[in-house]
Amino acid sequence: MAKELTPRSENYSQWYNDLVIKADLAENSAVRGCMVIKPYGYAIWEKMQAELDRMFKETGHVNAYFPLFIPKSFFSKEADHVEGFAKECAVVTHYRLKNSPDGKGVVVDPEAKLEEELIVRPTSETIIWSTYKNWIQSYRDLPILCNQWANVVRWEMRTRLFLRTAEFLWQEGHTAHATEAEAIAEAKQMLEVYADFAERFMAVPVIKGVKSANERFAGALETFCIEALMQDGKALQAGTSHFLGQNFAKAFDVTFVDKNNKQDYVWATSWGVSTRLMGALIMTHSDDHGLVLPPNLAPFQVVIVPIYKNEEQLNAISAKVNEIIPKLKGLEISVKFDNNDTKKPGWKFAEYELKGVPVRLAMGARDLENGTVEVARRDTLTKETVSLEGIEIYIKRLLTDIQANIFNKAIDYRTSVTREVNSYEEFKVEIEKGGFLLCHWDGTPETEEKIKEETKATIRCIPLDGDKTPGVCMVTGKPSAQRVIFARAY
Amino acid sequence: MAKELTPRSENYSQWYNDLVIKADLAENSAVRGCMVIKPYGYAIWEKMQAELDRMFKETGHVNAYFPLFIPKSFFSKEADHVEGFAKECAVVTHYRLKNSPDGKGVVVDPEAKLEEELIVRPTSETIIWSTYKNWIQSYRDLPILCNQWANVVRWEMRTRLFLRTAEFLWQEGHTAHATEAEAIAEAKQMLEVYADFAERFMAVPVIKGVKSANERFAGALETFCIEALMQDGKALQAGTSHFLGQNFAKAFDVTFVDKNNKQDYVWATSWGVSTRLMGALIMTHSDDHGLVLPPNLAPFQVVIVPIYKNEEQLNAISAKVNEIIPKLKGLEISVKFDNNDTKKPGWKFAEYELKGVPVRLAMGARDLENGTVEVARRDTLTKETVSLEGIEIYIKRLLTDIQANIFNKAIDYRTSVTREVNSYEEFKVEIEKGGFLLCHWDGTPETEEKIKEETKATIRCIPLDGDKTPGVCMVTGKPSAQRVIFARAY
């Protein structure tokens, strides 16, 4: 079969690539490192966007749009930020092409050189805070709670579809506050929003935590994050929310007059999730047969495939299906009836399995006679024959079941590969097996760096919830405030 | 008053700029020619997007995403297209910055020069058709009906907020078809979608037509367009839909095998509308007091302002308002209750007038006693006192009225400045007065060019509907198939 996937056990990375391509989610483009997000993949991303956007608005945020380009000098204004972001990026140096003197194609017009180069935004703190300077004078202008849906570019050397691409799509929230406490509360609130979205919609369990200094966002005082675990035992950072302190306000001289008529710098947060979430979604649930999509994000939740020998049978089945569809839609179940005559049922079964459609209904002549339909679940690959009487309620419950089941399965997997490790010797053995390792660490960047160099593992986060018992660092024996999570990561 | 606008009669262009800035729609950014779309402006754009997206999906289209960057060589592949688009554009030449040797800031790393320059997309036909080549083998793969919501960059020398900016937001549909007839039908269908959207949602009357060869999209065989007329008598092209023939298929070698097993090039369309529509919306309806928004696109349709002398009164009014709000929302009316205590009612009245909120409700102590509310219409600036009994139904009807009224007002204005002109002498006089001039033209680019040079007027379109009586060209006396529309344009 043309669409067969490399099994996970054989080559996980190849399985992932096969799946992204064969399920029509995305593909590489003619531009190095940039992907094309295909309609089926984009439809999932749109569902993610819609839900996140709703959650952002519910928590008081509004959308706005800031320029794609950032003057080069802006990056130099925040010392840590320039180190983190103004390196591997796309640089616009000219603004005009002209016909080539040899008559073949076009060349860059050397006379159209920009006085100052423009950087295609890798993230927008600098351009946004240069804008906020004009929006903020008084505490009455605060808070500003803006979000932007945008494309960003980071010139990554090694790229992988969705997980690491030169251009990717994301949202970036940028908020401005009158007090430190309010900014920290905002950063934590958005962490909760992300965790809630990941678990309830993506069915991806996540651990909420803060990053160690080494892994912190360039320019942040604190980076909150949600960390997910993929089926190969590697971690994936699924979203971050940064408390930026007054760093960007100072860099762009953004001050305000408070209620007591005192001038102060404004407090900031930023937070984002990206098309990388698509990678997390795929790698958490899918299997060797293809995608497994959570019903809450599936472009269509149910596909109906008619099984027929002749046109007469197809017509009879279609008539029955056209009675069922409005009932399903009435319960807000999205459904596709695939009556395409150029493909056989077997081909369709494989195709929708590959594409992760949560529920497949198959209806043949005998079903018509019996008033039944065959219902197949994508998550368990099980089938049963069900009466058409009240089928919509049955399907509605089934979708809820599937959503819960794949979430629980992911939780179970994570639990099975999360363990405490107490010595560095043990750590070196265990890290090879993957999963989350809960270890004591002395809190220094040096120790973290040593562990990373020797084992390729990083601190994914210092968990906010759970065991807070102190101990001693597995490497140095120095005091440790609590166990942190180590893993190898995407 | 700080927020007063320059009157239209004094300086229309300044009025427009004042309005965009003071109504918090958009502003210029630190990057030449790039705008910041502020939350209030973006909320209108989001409403436009939501409706257009719904209409695209209803007509069978799906969204996808293609790269921001286009290899320079791609532009040379379609001869007309390179002339039209690969000139004033943002050119990425490098992919890395490094710390400046003098320790101050960052500089472009000369070693990180791209082998081939990348162009920030001014439009995506080339990158998309290079992708479609891999998607299309057989007639079974057709049609492809993709749309993309994206940012594009055209390095305009003179920019104006929304109307002409270096970066702008838009959607671009790109479809691929097996037959010429199907592609033409698609291009025409999208023209109808655009016209329907402009008239029913923006309340902007448009004329549907085709462009003359001079004004055609670079690479198209036929450009369909909708043309609107602004209050200063200048035309604004509000949307275009192109029949591209087989030009891009030939440029990127995209062929398919048809039902008879014959190989042929694929037929194409593309169509787009942009944030320019915001300019059309503003300039069609607004007045010297500020924006006038059609209820179908207003971020909120109703604002409620309490008039109170003390907290007790405010509490009583708020209690009543909180009874009204759910009733309005129940009829899908969006509403904002502005109980901000730091602003006076007079300030709020002026602010919401400036922001074009269709209906303002003001409620004071006497209204409470009488069970009434003061209802003010933004479009007519009239007020009346209305009973709270059934207020939601009253408001619902009022919003429908306002939507119809501003559309009819725009139609009336257009009718009043649309006239037939039969001699070039008369034309030169009339064009100074603005409006649409219906004239006979001999169909040649030379005559159109001469008229443009001498009068700055262009053919806005050859109308699809209306009078098709032949005549003689007002300039050359040669035969003319029908009157065409001349105007000066944005």
* CATH architecture identity of the largest domain in chain A: 2-Layer Sandwich
Total count of domains of chain A = 3
The CATH class name of the largest domain in chain A reads Alpha Beta
Low-confidence stretches of chain A: none
- The count of helical stretches of chain A stands at 14
Helicity of chain A, in percent? 25-40%
Largest sheet of chain A: 11 strands, mixed
**So what's the overall shape of chain A?**
globular
Quaternary class: homodimer
Our measurement of the CA-to-CA distance between the termini of chain A, rounded to an integer number of angstroms, reads 30 Å
Q: Name the average pLDDT of chain A.
A: 96
Computed CA radius of gyration of chain A, to the nearest angstrom: 26 Å
Strand arrangement, major sheet of chain A? 3-8-9-15-12-11-10-23-26-22-21
State the secondary-structure class of chain A.
alpha+beta
Question: How would you describe the overall organization of this protein?
Answer:
Chain A is an alpha+beta fold and 490 residues long. Chain A has 3 domains: 12-68 and 125-285, BirA Bifunctional Protein, domain 2 (2-Layer Sandwich); 302-406, Rossmann fold (3-Layer(aba) Sandwich); 418-487, C-terminal domain of ProRS (Translation Initiation Factor IF3). In chain A, 34% of the residues lie in helices and 28% in strands. Chain A is built from 14 helices and 26 strands. Chain A has helices at 12-22, 39-58, 72-75, 79-85, 125-135, 180-200, 247-251, 276-285, 311-330, 345-354, 365-370, 391-416, 424-430, 445-455, and strands at residues 26-28, 35-37, 62-63, 69-71, 88-99, 106-108, 113-120, 144-153, 167-177, 207-210, 222-229, 235-245, 255-257, 263-265, 267-274, 302-306, 335-337, 359-363, 372-377, 383-387, 418-420, 436-440, 458-463, 471-472, 479-480, 483-487. In chain A, the strands form 6 sheets. In chain A, strands 3-8-9-15-12-11-10-23-26-22-21 form an 11-stranded mixed beta sheet, sandwiched between helices. Chain A has a 5-stranded mixed beta sheet with strand order 17-16-18-19-20, with helices on both faces. Chain A has a 4-stranded antiparallel beta sheet with strand order 4-7-5-6. In chain A, strand 11 (222-229) and strand 12 form a beta hairpin. The model of chain A has no long low-confidence stretch (mean pLDDT 96). At the A-B interface, strand 2, helix 2, strand 3, strand 4 and helix 3 of A face strand 2, helix 2, strand 3, strand 4 and helix 3 of B.
